[in-house]
Amino acid sequence: MTELVFYTHPMSRARIVRWMLEEVGQPYQTRILEFGHSMKGPDYLAINPMGKVPAIRHGDTVVTEAAAICAYLADAFPAAGLAPPPGSPERGPYYRWLFFGAGPVESAVMDKVLGFEIPVEREAMVGYGNIERALAAIEGALYRTEYIAGDKFTAADVYVGSQVGWGMMYRGIDKRPAFERYWALLSARPAYIRAKAIDDQIIEERKKAS
Question: What is the pLDDT of residue 15?
């Protein structure tokens, strides 16, 4: 079996990938890195020149960026059923919402959390236009289907759901009924519960050791 290695820190976006790995259900090794230390060391910079997590190494293949890792893992392990098959009608919406979450939604939510306001006259220069339009797009999709890309859970839900859950927690996303219903559905998944427990335990152990 090809070795699968996960580079992470439990208080980072790598939690998205931990969840995805638990959904995939394949064995993997975990390498925990430290902000500003091992993340910026030469060994890890050879994996990700940005010096950020998450990243995975699957045999000789390295993938960075949480959305890209989710897409890669879904295709690398098709038996998990986390992506519509290539050529199917569902493949388009799957790609659409996965990368809408990674682009407009993440940018809009982070700008709001950090207090950045885009002047109305400059909205055309910004990929998401304004946060209300970006969130309204997701809200509308979630009123039409149970999951973001249709009636079946996919890797797109791991990424978009993480953005929605994180955004509501840190007040970057309003707690709208569609979002609360969606996050309640996703956060009850056994793979999410396992992933959260693993990372939470790592955090607790590090606190005790410090």
Answer: 98
